[in-house]
Write a structure and sequence with these properties.
The chain is an alpha/beta fold and about 250 residues long. It has eight helices and nine strands. Strand 5, helix 5 and strand 6 form a beta-alpha-beta unit. The termini are far apart.
Length: about 250
């Protein structure tokens, strides 16, 4: 590609909240090979990673905060978000748009189809619906996911479980499916020294220094299935009463 311009890629996500999807997306935009790709990031306003994005992408004009893109369902703002994204796409004219998260995935794919973007990709980092939601809300989200899946050229999943859920619910078709798991920087776990704060944390939590300890980190949401972690802890404790379990 030495004799060609870099491919222009736009990543669109609802909000830069503190989470795996958001951190993954920001990392991707910041680290795509600049010789082959010119990466942009658009998102809603006022979230955890906003300053990080401004600091690393603002000087090059590769970050844009959208006025009408919000997480809750809001018919007027959602229509305005589609129009705002559509106008931005017509101006930027990326070859690829890659959407992340449910709301941005829905409004972004609609806007991209209207703007005739050549390649439309969506990553499912999870789903905006679950079995404990109001039936009508769940039906709306599921219907919109099925509709916008047909607008995408590829549907990417971060886990096989998510892919099988989409298959069972007839979201898109298997020909569109790809699994790309989130990367983990293994070098931070390969050190031979125990971080100095670990013994302090054990003492603070009254955990003996040699006790086996299992930690889970995640939002207190149904999708994280913390109840199963507790069931596992109960079973393990029956045969290993000295084990400790921590939820963060």
């Amino acid at each position: 590609m030495d004799d060609k311009k870099p491919v222009k890629v736009l990543h669109l996500i609802t909000l830069l909240e503190f989470g795996g999807a958001q951190g993954n997306t920001l990392f991707t935009v910041q680290n795509l090979d600049s010789q082959n790709f010119s990466a942009y990031l658009w998102c809603g306003k006022n979230s955890y990673w906003d300053e990080e994005a401004r600091k690393n992408l603002g000087h090059s004009g590769r970050i844009k905060f959208l006025s009408h893109l919000v997480r809750p369902i809001h018919p007027l703002k959602d229509l305005l978000a589609i129009w705002e994204i559509f106008l931005g796409l017509k101006k930027l004219q990326p070859q690829i748009i890659h959407t992340h998260s449910s709301k941005a995935g829905i409004v972004g794919r609609i806007a991209a189809r209207w703007a005739k973007i050549p390649v439309i990709i969506h990553t499912f980092h999870g789903f905006g619906f679950n079995d404990k939601q109001n039936f009508l809300i769940r039906w709306i989200f599921l219907t919109l996911e099925r509709m916008t899946a047909r607008m995408a050229h590829k549907l990417i999943f971060v886990s096989r479980s998510n892919m099988e859920t989409a298959r069972a619910l007839k979201i898109g078709s298997p020909e569109q499916y790809e699994i790309i798991r989130s990367g983990v920087p293994l070098k931070i776990f390969r050190g031979t020294q125990i971080p100095a704060n670990i013994p302090l944390l054990r003492a603070e939590l009254s955990i003996p220094k040699d006790a086996p300890t299992v930690l889970t980190i995640g939002a207190f949401k149904p999708q994280k299935n913390l109840s199963q972690f507790l069931e596992m802890a109960k079973k393990v404790s029956e045969s290993a009463p000295h084990a400790h379990f921590v939820i963060l």
